[in-house]
């Protein structure tokens, strides 16, 4: 879990037009903030590496709000949301979670990787996420009310490459408004690789094009996994360390795919894509 403190609350309710060093479609950014400031829970969906987790953090920073991230995938039992029992000084006491503190303060609570757990894990926070915004904690016999300025933003991966995630039950789905994040358009992604990660101009454009092409092949079902921002960031790092272009691409984009099947393998497909762009 990560937490950061409130910087200021003066910008409450005022939308920002852009997030520095981060691309998100303008209309979506406005809608996300409109929901946030209206007390409506937001669900960010999209392929891996499209900035879902990063955006939750940056929204908090842009608005000077406290930020608390729950790694939902790490929650093992429905009661873990609220705390755990510890044996201290000869007796067992209930140690309340940071989540319980966070929901009673103004700020953003990010429910990261929300569909990495079975739906029963969600049951215990239903009443927190609906209009009641309160919960009874059995262990401490306390009624907790969610702060009116506590904002919930969940993230989840959806799609066929995500084994390890579970289908959303409609009860949970109904408690969020969903927005799908996409890769930035080719030129804008190249710009970010240059400005934020220090890629050379010609490399930035190439990495961005390869990313888009490979991700397109995933959506056409020619590749088994999506390609988000991360391999391009890793390739940029290798290039900056002085690795040749081909090597940088091999250990990032290519190695993510299976060599099984020889000439018909996914790696071969990826290598062909790369060859085409290197010409
Ligand atoms: N639209 C974007 N603009 C700028 N940087 C981005 C964007 N999308 C992704 N990145 C960068 O790519 C990296 C991965 O982003 P992030 O971890 O937020 O992805 P994610 O969507 O949460 O992926 P996952 O589904 O695997 O959790 C981060 O370093 C992030 O800054
Ligand atoms: Mg994430």
UniProtKB/TrEMBL annotation:
One of its GO terms (molecular function) is ATP binding. InterPro entries: AAA+_ATPase (IPR003593), ATPase_dyneun-rel_AAA (IPR011704), CbbQ/NirQ/NorQ/GpvN (IPR050764), ClpA/B (IPR001270), P-loop_NTPase (IPR027417). Residues 38-182 form the AAA+ ATPase domain. Gene3D superfamilies: P-loop containing nucleotide triphosphate hydrolases. Belongs to the CbbQ/NirQ/NorQ/GpvN family. This is AAA family ATPase.
């Amino acid at each position: 879990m990560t937490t950061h403190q409130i910087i200021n609350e003066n910008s409450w309710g005022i939308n920002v037009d852009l997030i520095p060093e981060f691309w998100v479609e303008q209309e979506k950014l406005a809608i996300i903030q409109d929901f946030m400031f209206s007390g409506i829970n937001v669900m960010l969906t999209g392929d891996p590496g499209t900035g879902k987790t990063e955006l939750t953090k940056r929204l908090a920073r842009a608005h000077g709000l406290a930020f608390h991230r729950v790694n939902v995938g790490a929650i093992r039992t429905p009661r873990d949301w609220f705390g755990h029992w510890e044996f201290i000084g000869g007796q067992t006491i209930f140690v309340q979670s940071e989540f319980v503190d966070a929901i009673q303060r103004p700020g953003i609570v990010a429910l990261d990787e929300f569909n990495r757990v079975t739906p029963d894990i969600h049951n215990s926070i239903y009443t927190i996420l609906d209009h009641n915004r309160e919960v009874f904690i059995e262990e401490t016999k306390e009624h907790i009310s969610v702060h009116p300025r506590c904002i919930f933003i969940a993230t989840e991966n959806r799609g066929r490459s995500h084994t390890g995630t579970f289908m959303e039950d409609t009860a949970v789905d109904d408690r969020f408004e969903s927005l799908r994040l996409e890769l930035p358009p080719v030129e804008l992604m190249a710009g970010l690789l240059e400005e934020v990660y220090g890629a050379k101009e010609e490399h930035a454009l190439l990495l961005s094009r390869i990313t888009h092409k490979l991700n397109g092949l995933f959506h056409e079902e020619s590749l088994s996994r999506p390609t988000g921002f991360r391999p391009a960031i890793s390739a940029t790092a290798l290039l900056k360390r002085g690795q040749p272009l081909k090597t940088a691409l091999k250990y990032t984009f290519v190695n993510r795919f299976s060599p099984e099947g020889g000439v018909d393998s996914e790696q071969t497909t990826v290598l062909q894509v790369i060859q085409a762009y290197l010409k």
